[in-house]
Design goal:
2 strands, mainly alpha, two-stranded antiparallel ribbon
């Protein structure tokens, strides 16, 4: 029998009935057995029951064609199957990047420790201070690691996303238990035999289950599947790796070459060149994360509610898109930002909406700035612009023209984001150009009979290693130039 769990925790207490009546979005969130919409490995999914499944299979064939033909073309043109330029940069501090996950996992147990302390009548104010301090330390460590280790962009993205995920989980666990503790005390602190009732839920097993399940809002229990489908889990893991390799090929073949030559293009030309590759990259990353990676974790943890997104591609307004494309984050923002602002901090509905938008923009900007190691308020600007745009496009809701406008603006935003990133790759571009110049010099000085092609790849690797050092020296020089400029300004 399928399990259905109604969450009363998404709806605040009934003491503010008048305020609840004025909030038309107020609703209870329900966790139940659901299948991902585009799950081609589950016969109960919307995709498998649709007559449009053939189009989805066609996209897979196109991806497979690109996956197979690109190495062949590279070998014919350059003499190698894969461009290892990106891979060499990813290999730097790869272990240090991956090990942050178990470190953040261990650190997240502070939230469990705080609940044990709360049962010993530690004041809530002390609990909240320790909670926010622990989360701040996690973000500071993330900053320190990315900036001091000079991580490549992929490493920065991984670490910042992990820090945001564990922050949301820790906050949800603390605040949900805080509300249940308040209700438990109001009811006379009665003991229950139910293992999922407060305070029986405060234990290591329940907390670990929440941390491992691909969800960001805490519940004492979730719908669970009867068993782990081994073939399904392996298939999702294989798809995740395949999409990761495909994303690597898109970046190395279409995006990085455009970044390297961006200075030679005008704004319109570079915008057009970024639009199609960025669209493909975003779709591949969406499929990799929300369709394959999350379903893999959902399968091995036996999590039953796999609706990690809904039909965001049919969105006609940005409000609808924000609600549909990332269900776990949307539910966190709704419960722990929007509703908490209204019922815990007594914000008005309009102010709570603005605060939720601003908080979401800050999280996105934090991830982008730390990944690129540069402060660029472009995402905050785009997200703040969305609010007046949503008001102006209300007439397009539910219409085909609204969906067309949504796709057009979304693609322009992605291209502009990548265009902004080109300013952070000046050192990388210089490094690439130096490497190519060195190779050209070697080829000019050596004839074909003198070149040992078996050692050419090793020579390239040595050149890249040297250029990494040049990149580090370049950043040090930039820092010294800023200090000299500051001293000069002070003297003036």
């Amino acid at each position: 029998m399928k399990q259905k769990i109604d969450s009363a925790l998404s709806t605040p207490d009934g003491v503010d009935a008048n305020k609840q009546a004025n909030i038309k979005h107020l609703r209870k969130h329900t966790f139940q057995h659901r299948v991902s919409l585009l799950d081609d490995m589950d016969e109960n999914s919307e995709l498998c029951r649709s007559k449009l499944k053939g189009f989805y299979n066609m996209l897979y064939v196109v991806c497979l064609y690109f996956f197979l033909i690109n190495p062949v073309l590279n070998y014919q043109k350059h003499g190698y199957f894969f461009d290892t330029k990106l891979l060499d940069m990813i290999e730097r501090d790869f272990f240090m990047c991956i090990v942050t996950w178990p470190l953040f996992y261990g650190w997240s147990h502070i939230a469990l420790l705080l609940q044990y302390l709360s049962l010993r009548e530690i004041p809530s104010s002390v609990i909240f201070i320790i909670q926010h301090a622990s989360q701040l330390c996690m973000f500071l460590y993330c900053h320190y690691l990315v900036l001091t280790r000079n991580f490549f962009m992929s490493h920065g993205i991984f670490i910042t996303f992990q820090s945001c995920i564990f922050f949301m989980k820790m906050h949800s666990y603390t605040m949900t238990n805080y509300k249940m503790r308040r209700e438990w005390r109001d009811s006379g602190s009665k003991k229950h035999n139910d293992p999922y009732a407060y305070p029986n839920n405060i234990n290591f097993r329940n907390f670990t289950q929440f941390i491992m399940i691909p969800v960001l809002v805490y519940e004492t229990q979730y719908p669970r599947t009867e068993k782990i489908r081994i073939k399904y889990a392996i298939g999702k893991m294989v798809n995740t790796v395949a999409m990761l390799v495909l994303a690597y090929q898109i970046c190395s073949v279409h995006i990085l070459p455009t970044i390297e030559t961006a200075k030679e293009m005008n704004f319109i030309e570079s915008l057009f060149k970024f639009t199609l590759p960025m669209t493909c990259l975003c779709l591949v990353c969406f499929n990799m994360i929300f369709e394959n990676y999350t379903n893999f974790w959902g399968e091995i943890t036996r999590y039953g509610d796999r609706l990690f997104y809904t039909d965001w591609w049919n969105a006609t307004t940005f409000e609808e898109f924000n609600r549909k494309w990332n269900s776990p984050v949307y539910e966190f923002l709704y419960r722990h930002v929007y509703l908490e602002m209204i019922f815990e901090h007594h914000f008005s509905v309009r102010k709570a909406q603005l605060a939720t938008f601003f908080f979401s923009a800050l999280l996105h900007e934090y991830s982008l700035c730390l990944s690129l190691q540069q402060l660029t308020p472009i995402l905050i600007l785009f997200m703040m612009i969305q609010m007046p745009v949503m008001l102006l496009t209300q007439s397009l809701r539910g219409k085909q023209s609204g969906n067309i406008f949504f796709w057009f603006k979304n693609k322009i935003k992605q291209a502009l984001s990548k265009k902004k990133q080109t300013t952070t790759n000046q050192v990388f571009v210089t490094e690439t150009q130096i490497e190519e110049q060195y190779i050209d010099d070697e080829q000019l000085q050596l004839s074909d009979e003198d070149v040992d092609y078996d050692d050419l790849e090793e020579l390239r690797r040595m050149i890249r290693t040297t250029n990494y050092q040049i990149k580090d020296y370049g950043k040090q020089v930039q820092g010294l130039q800023k200090q000299i400029q500051q001293i000069s300004n002070k003297k003036k």
